[in-house]
Structure formats: structure tokens, C-alpha cells
Amino acid sequence: WGGFGHITIAYVASSFVNDQTATYFQTLLRNDSSDYLANVATWADNIRYTKWGHFTGPFHFIDAKDDPPSSCDVIMERDCKSEGCVISALQNYTSRLIDAGRSLPAWEHEQAAKFIIHFVGDMHQPLHTEDVAKGGNGIHVKFDNKFLNLHHVWDTSILEKIVGGVRGSPYGAAQQLADQLVADIRSGKYQTESKSWLDGIKLDDVEGTALIWARESNAYVCTHVLPQGPKAIVGQELGDSYYDDAAPVVEIQVARAGFRLAAWLDLLAAKIA
Ligand code: DCM
Ligand code: DCM
Ligand code: DCM
Ligand code: ZN
Ligand code: ZN
User: What was the ipTM of the complex prediction?
Assistant: First the structure.
């Protein structure tokens, strides 16, 4: 996701965490405002292009070598590269935040928390769970008459169009969208189905949990991202019907990511504190 998506996911999570969790992460992140998660949500994107942060580049995605639109799936042994992927990264930073031997310095716990807050978000972007053309970065299309790559359309353009565009600082618009998604989860269009969004969540099986989330995300590559395969959309205007089908997927994935991030942080805080 782009910055707006990650910040929205963080605000959704902030609404669902329990009080103990909020206090634990406000202390760890040294921010006692209500923006304590939102303010670090894009940190992992800002450091990945630095020299020291270069090794974290592969942690934002998993390149599923499936065959959309006829077959979609994420298989850990096939798809997670030796240098890591978003699933192994969640495993690594979850275990570093728990730090069973309590041997790491506080700044490492803080860094682990910032990675977790970001990577739970990224695995909910369908094209962060797909190999084709580097997660769609190599598929050039037009969206509302602008030349863009398909990855950027799914990271940023669709979500920003849903709210009528984002100009200037994304924080206000992200809080507004998050408030709407929280209401949809508590008492609106997601009320019933959100009861099953935490199925299978287990802090002691990070890989199993993350695979459930990544497979659900990856399935949308076959149904909504590339429903006719990659070649059908190269150089084409995606158009209204593509957007009308894609927007609800982007919206529910952002809602799920925020809701699940809150649950993951609750499990972590309960285990550590
Ligand atoms: N980004 C950043 N700093 C950079 C390059 C990109 O903060 N030097 C951010 C802006 C984009 C986001 O990364 O919105 C894209 O990240 P990803 O594609 O990992 O979701
Ligand atoms: N690091 C990491 N995951 C690990 C081990 C280390 O992300 N499993 C990061 C934390 C530090 C850097 O690598 O930023 C160097 O750590 P160390 O020197 O402790 O290996
Ligand atoms: N990306 C991806 N899958 C890949 C390569 C990249 O999902 N195989 C994502 C990470 C960033 C965006 O695409 O969100 C741009 O990546 P980069 O800056 O590495 O080109
Ligand atoms: Zn992306
Ligand atoms: Zn990312």
C-alpha cells in the first residue's frame, strides 16, 4: 500500500486494540498521542531505500509463482525466497518483539513493532502476494487517463479514488476513512463477516496465520486484479467496471488488515506485558 493505505490501516487498528495494548505500544513507540500507530505505519517504506535498510526490501511481499487467472495460491516453500518474504518477516519481527530471552535492547523491540505494523498491512494488498511482473510493477495501464503501473493502481490509486482524492497530508483523510471502516465493522456492512476475520489467528503459529491472510489476499489476483490475465489489460484504460469491482476489494482488505493488526498487537501485548 501507499502511505494513505498504511496510515488508514493503523488508525483502524488503533480503534480496536484494548487499553493495555495501547499503553504498551505508546510506551514502546514513545508516543502517547492517538497517532502512535499511524505515525510509524510508513517507516518501513522510508528505510527500505536506504543503504542500511536495503535488506528489508523483500520483506514487503511474497512472490507467489502461481498462474492467474486460472490458478492462485501461496506456497511457503515455493514462494518465500531465501532472503525472506512478508511471511517470514512477520515471523522474525514477531519473535524479536516477544524476545523470549529478553536479551535485545529496547530499540530492537521498537523496530520490530514498526515492521509488524507495516507488514500486516502489506500482506493484505493482493499484488504484494503475486510474482507476475514483479507484483504488477511491470504491467503498464491507464487509470482515469493517467499512465500508471498496475501495482501503483492497487497500492494507491483505487483507495484514494474511493475517498475522492487525497491532497496534502494524508492523516486527516485516513482518520476519516478509518472511522467509516470501524463503523462498518462494528455495526455496518462488515458486522457479520468480520466475526470470522480472526479465524485461525495464533501467535505461536505466525507462518500459519500469515498464510491464511496471504492466501485470501492472493485469491483476489485471480478474481479481481487479473480476471482476464495480464495480457488483457496491458496498455489499456482499466475503466469504470474494473474500478467498480476493485474498490470493494481494496476497501475490505484495508478493513481486514486494520482489524487483524489490532488483534495481533493485543496478542503480543498480552504475551509480553
Ligand atoms: N516510499 C517512501 N520513500 C521512498 C519510496 C517510496 O516513503 N523512497 C513510499 C511511498 C509509496 C510507498 O513507499 O507510497 C510504496 O511502498 P510499497 O510499494 O512498499 O507499498
Ligand atoms: N536484524 C533483523 N532480523 C534478525 C536479526 C537482525 O532484522 N533476525 C536486524 C536488526 C538490526 C540489524 O539486522 O537492524 C543488525 O542486527 P544484528 O547485528 O543484531 O544481527
Ligand atoms: N513489490 C512487490 N513485489 C515485487 C517487487 C516489488 O509487491 N516482486 C512492491 C514493493 C513496493 C512496490 O512493489 O510496494 C515497488 O517496489 P520497488 O520499489 O522494489 O520497485
Ligand atoms: Zn506496494
Ligand atoms: Zn511496504
Answer: 0.78
